[in-house]
Every structure is written in structure tokens, then in C-alpha cells.
Amino acid sequence: METTRQNRIARLLQKELGDIFLLQAKSMPGMLVSVSAVRISPDMSVARAYLSIFPSEKSEEMVKGINNNMKSIRYELGTRVRHQLRIIPELKFFVDDSLDYLEKIDELLK
After folding, report:
1. Which of these, 41, 92, 106, 107, could form a disulfide with 46 (CB 3.0-4.6 Å)?
2. Cα–Cα distance between 65 and 69 in angstroms, integer?
3. Domain boundary assignment for the chain
4. Distances (CA, A) of 52 to 33, 55, 58, 97, 106
5. pTM higher than the cut 0.70
6. What local confidence, expressed as pLDDT, does residue 63 receive?
């Protein structure tokens, strides 16, 4: 169960990470990256961001590249939220495959 503070910080991180990926997506034509959810640990030190990537065939490769550039993304996030947060959490990115799962279930039901 997440506290109100965790929810507020998670929403702030989701919004700012979405803006960061929106700016970076301009350099990658044909790719769409959105932050579907952010979960933050109770001590506010680790944030798990779930990314929805289109086209989904390149999602694993894209998340691997994002995790390799995590330091620059964390720095950019820190410059954006430095007045709201005392400590910028460590970021971990994962693929959100819930849409693929929904499509698979729809196909099975047909």
C-alpha cells in the first residue's frame, strides 16, 4: 500500500519522465515512448518506471538503451524537480507489456 506522499512523488516523476522522453523521441522517428506507471519505494530512494513503447517489437532493445543512458536521464530529471525533492531517486526502467497482454487475450477470445 502506497502512502499519499509516494503517490504524489510518483505522479510528479511520471509527468517529468514523460516530458523528457517526449523531447528525446524527436530524435527517433517512428518510435513512441510513454511512461505508463511509476512505483516508488517507501524510503523514496528507488523509482521503478514502466514504459510503454510502440512499436513493441523494439521495446526490449529500447529499454536496454534507456537503462544504459540512465545517468543522463536522472540528471535531467534532477534539474527539473530539484525544488520539489531533496533526493532524486535511482531510476529503473521496465517494459510495460500490458497492452500486448490485452491484445493476446482478445485474440484468444475471438
Report:
1. 41
2. 6
3. 4-109
4. 6, 9, 11, 7, 19
5. yes
6. 87
